[in-house]
UniProtKB/TrEMBL annotation:
Record-linked PROSITE patterns: FBPASE (PS00124)
Cofactor note: Binds 2 magnesium ions per subunit.
Cellular compartments per GO CC: cytosol
Record domain Fructose-1-6-bisphosphatase class 1 C-terminal: where: 189-321
Residues in coiled coil: none
Hydrolase found in the keyword field: yes
Location of this chain's protein in the cell: Cytoplasm
A single MF term (Gene Ontology): fructose 1,6-bisphosphate 1-phosphatase activity
Keyword list, A-Z: Carbohydrate metabolism, Cytoplasm, Hydrolase, Magnesium, Metal-binding
Listed name of the protein: Fructose-1,6-bisphosphatase class 1
Enzyme Commission no: 3.1.3.11
Residues where Mg(2+) 2 binds: D103, D106, E270
Length: 325
């Protein structure tokens, strides 16, 4: 089986980017080990602190964030980091050529039940003019990403990654510590019968998504003339992995509860990397108002609505938005 390095070279990734990705993944392997120790290492449970977004931090959120920060900060490749668990950007090497954004441990509430969690990341060029502590350099649309991916800490540890030449999935071979290419050039399957959305928020959705989901739920008797199945892992990384492998649609739509939070998921380190992976696998990723990767961020923790998955299914969902004007 091909190793990560040779696939990155085949995809034409520059040497410095390859070295940066390998450094980042060294951190993820350490997270994978810590996660697998669970209660034995005393890493489960919450801290007494909240992150900048008002979410209680789990011990593993803090540990994973620290591992990635330590690994990347001294690598020499990174000028600055933005993380879900950091209030503002973390300055790194003034000569670094890249910016890295990450959610160190997505779905961290799942640590309590030994269920799916993962690390999501995106990488962009650092502008020459940028000071390492300047957050404005992160305010680039997702179309500027040079690489993105996630590491899923499940029964096996898997990496889904793109550098803009297709989406490939690798599996961590824990006997020698390398990521091996197990699913090259993944294509999101068409013709799906699965969707993922947290229906407990239904009363807060806008009309197009209300109607779209109602039609899915109506099954064979409804306008879609087909029975659907619903899935919810409570970790975007797990739900997106399912969609990437089996087809379908994942939604965290616009929410009327709080206008300052038009969706739950964060653009830089959740929506954008997943959008890049999905588009490179032949799928679509939209907010309902346009392509996720074209959204111009206004701040590093910006949230966006997310509709992502198989091309036909996302197009069908978007047709409800068009009909509603
Ligand atoms: P964390 O990154 O804070 O663990 O949040 C996970 C998440 O943002 C995303 O991965 C899930 O899709 C979503 O929250 C699930 O939230 P609800 O189940 O509360 O809707």
């Amino acid at each position: 089986m091909k190793r990560l390095n040779s696939q990155l070279q085949k995809d034409g990734a520059p040497l410095e980017l390859i070295l940066l990705i390998r450094t980042l993944l060294a951190g993820c392997k350490e997270i994978s080990f810590r996660v697998s120790q669970g209660a034995l290492a005393g890493v489960l449970g919450s801290t007494l602190s909240e992150n900048v977004q008002g979410e209680t931090q789990k011990k593993l959120d803090v540990i994973s964030n620290q591992i990635l920060k330590d690994t990347l900060r001294d690598s020499g490749y990174v000028k600055a980091i933005s993380s879900e668990e950091e209030d503002t950007v973390v300055p790194c090497d003034p000569n670094g050529n890249y910016l890295v954004s990450f959610d160190p441990l997505d779905g961290s509430s799942n640590t309590e039940i030994n269920s799916l969690i993962g690390t999501i990341f995106s990488i962009a060029h650092a502008p020459q003019w940028m000071e390492p502590d300047d957050p404005s350099a992160f305010l680039q649309p997702g179309t500027q990403m040079v690489a993105a991916g996630y590491v899923l800490y499940g029964p096996s540890t898997m990496l889904a990654m793109t550098t803009g030449r297709g989406t490939h999935i690798y599996t961590l071979d824990k006997t020698h510590g390398g990521f091996l290419l197990t699913h090259p050039n993944v294509q999101v399957p068409h013709g799906t019968a699965e969707f993922a959305i947290n229906t407990s928020n239904q009363r807060h959705w806008e009309m197009p998504i209300q109607q779209y989901v109602a039609d899915l739920l109506a099954g064979e008797e409804g306008p879609r003339k087909k029975d659907y199945n619903m899935r919810w892992v409570a970790a975007m990384v797990g739900d997106i992995h399912r969609v990437l492998c089996r087809g379908g649609i994942f939604m965290y739509p616009f929410d009327k509860r709080n206008p300052s939070k038009p969706g739950k998921l964060r653009l830089l380190y959740e929506a954008n990397p997943m959008a890049f992976l999905m588009e490179q696998a032949g799928g679509l990723a939209d907010t309902g108002q346009g392509r996720i990767m074209e959204v111009m961020p206004s701040e590093i923790h910006q949230r966006v609505p997310v509709l992502i998955g198989s091309k036909e299914e996302v197009e069908t969902c978007l047709s409800y938005y068009r009909k509603a004007g």
